[in-house]
Amino acid sequence: MEQEPANDIRIVPANEASWDDLKAVMGTRGEASRCMCQWFKIRDKDWKSVPVEELAARLHAQAGCGNPGAKSTSGLVAYLGGEPAGWCAVEPRTAYIRMLRMRVPWADRNEDRADDAVWAVTCFVTRTGFRRRGVSRALASAAVEFARERGARAIEGYPIVTRPGQQYSWGELYVGSSGVFTDAGFSEVSRPTPRRAVMRIDFP
Fold first, then answer.
1. At how many degrees (to 10) do helices 52-63 and 19-26 cross?
2. pLDDT band at residue 162 under the 50/70/90 scheme
3. From edge to edge, which strands make up the β-sheet containing 75-80?
4. CA 125 to CA 136: how far, in whole Å?
5. Can you say whether the dihedral through the CA atoms of 18, 23, 53, 158 is positive or negative?
6. What's the predicted TM-score (pTM) here?
7. DSSP 125-167
8. Separation in Å, CA 92 to CA 20, 96, 114, 148, 150
9. Across residues 48-70, what is the average pLDDT?
10. Are 129 and 159 in contact (CB under 8 A)?
11. Is the model's pLDDT at 66 over the cut of 70?
12. What does the CA dihedral 62, 53, 98, 96 come to, rounded to 10 degrees?
């Protein structure tokens, strides 16, 4: 799967990207470089005991970078002008151990948490210097087709509900904004908190 270039943005499954490219997106400073997209994959009680080197090793293995023949991968990598620019985590919802225990995805919903056919978009990272150029929106749209092509019955996201004029930090917006998901065709199915929504697409 490779999304056609739009505004010079090209998106590939992470196993078709190099590890150096994914590391460039994560950077060497800030939350992404410390988390390595493992927050939802490690139980709360174990989080502080895992060093960042191990987090990086886990991401490397999960993404399968440099292995186009890999049967699975844990996300998508975006290129802008040929440079690695962004990352989006998208997998079956059951891959995210911590999320299965959190309130936000499940409040006021009767959902089978063990349903592997429901996929989730949990994290966006846009590299410094490439922000506000449509990278997250392109990744969210690509994630929909990525999940559909791999047999997903539905795909969900858990974004921040943004408001005009309000400032947000990366620590809040790593889950994406509601506008990003709306533009990708997701519809709100619940509002577990005033600032967080569950948004979803059910495939025919």
1. 130
2. confident
3. 3-6, 9-13, 75-80, 83-92, 118-126, 154-157, 196-202, 187-193
4. 8
5. negative
6. 0.92
7. EE-TTSTTSSHHHHHHHHHHHHHHHTT-SEEEE--B---TT--
8. 25, 8, 10, 11, 10
9. 96
10. no
11. yes
12. -10
Structure tokens at 71: 């049967």
Residue 141, both tokens: 């749209």
Q: 């975006």: which residue's tokens?
A: 78
Q: Tokens representing 35? A: 């988390």
Q: Which domains does the chain have, with CATH numbers?
A: 3-202 (3.40.630.30)
Q: Which residues face 202 on adjacent strands?
A: 154
- The secondary structure element, H or E, covering residue 192 is strand 187-193
Query: Which residue in the block uniquely carries the two structure tokens 């791999």?
Result: 150
Residue bearing tokens 């988390």: 35
